[in-house]
Every structure is written in C-alpha cells, then in structure tokens.
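Before the break, one more example. Copy the sequence into your notebook; we will annotate it together after we see the structure.
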Amino acid sequence: MSIDIADLRGTIVPRSDQINSEQLLAGPKTITISDVRAGSQEQPVILHYEGDEGRPYKPCLTMRKVLVFTWGEDGRQWIGKSMTLFNDPEVRFGGQTVGGIRISHLSDIEKDVKISLTATKGKKALHTIQRLEVVRLADVIRAINAATNRSGMDAAKALAKQLTAQEDIDAALQAYTARAASLRAKAEPVKQPEPALTPGPDEDDSPPF
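Here is what the structure looks like once it is written out:
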C-alpha cells in the first residue's frame, strides 16, 4: 500500500465490506450515489457511491427512514444524489453507546428537514437534515475560467475540493493548471523590440559573416 504521509486517513480504514464509522473520525464525508442494490435481511439497502473502493454505505434502519422520508421510496431515484455522512459517537446499539454513521446533509431537498424518529423503546430523537449544496464540475470550470488573479484561483480551488468523483477532480485539475499557466503568461512583462541601428556613413551594414 502506498502511504501519503500528508493524508493518513487511509491507514485507519478497517478491512470491511462497507464504510465504517471509524473512517469518519477525521471528519465528515460527502458521497454521490452511483447505484442502489438490495442487501441482506439485516442490511437490506446497499448504497454504492463514486470512489467507494468496494466499501458501500449500508444505512441503518433510522437512516433508511430518513432517506425514504426525504428522497422517496423509489431507490432508483436516489442515484446521482449526494449526502454527507459523519461519525456520531452517541449512537447506541444493544444498550451500549458504540457510535455509528449518521447523515447530516442531503442534496435535492428544498430546505432543511427535521424528523422525529424512534431511538429506543418509548423514546424518540429529533434528526435535522440540512440541505446540501452540491458542487458540479461545470460550476468549478466556470469559476476557473472567470478567475483573473490569485484570489479568484484560490476560490476556484476551494470549490474544486468539494467535488467527489475522481474523473471530475481530474478534469478540474487539468482546467486549473491550464488557467494558471495562462494567467502567468499574461503577467509576464512584454519585451519591447530593440530599435534598429542605422549605420553611419563610415559603418558597414553587411552581415558579420
């Protein structure tokens, strides 16, 4: 395994057939659904996402309720939509606090959603799902092309960091590199042509050889 010491999150990824809450210890993760499949009785819904590397998201019952409530019951319509996952250390299972994956943001909803769902027997918990503003490749390319200085390029770069698909990231990087080269070329001072020398009456203007 090639290890990038600038980003050690890959070294804490557990060997598993699904994304694990421990993978989110370093922070939330925004994913874009690429496929929805039926799973087992215990985990009936499998959400594949772009770049999942064989570790899809298998939402728990509570999060499945959230998804059906917000996105509808037809899982085929979830493909192409995005969500932000985070590690909630307060998730309980079997009477113990074990932590788990929760959804904080969803794309394709008109506004923030609050839904009260059963947490334990006789108790409910309020879940707030915020509207996710999804950054598309076209938005990033537009920002890159509109940039005319370092500030504009930095803003475009920040926008590009929100892309999730690797092919989109690669395309944005290519456009960013080309735009940066173009701006550097424009910033370089233009060399003025040297004035032609007119030979004097005693000078020979023939080639030196």
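The CA atoms of residues 68 and 74 lie 8 Å apart. DSSP finds four helices and eight strands in the chain. Try to locate both features in your own notes.
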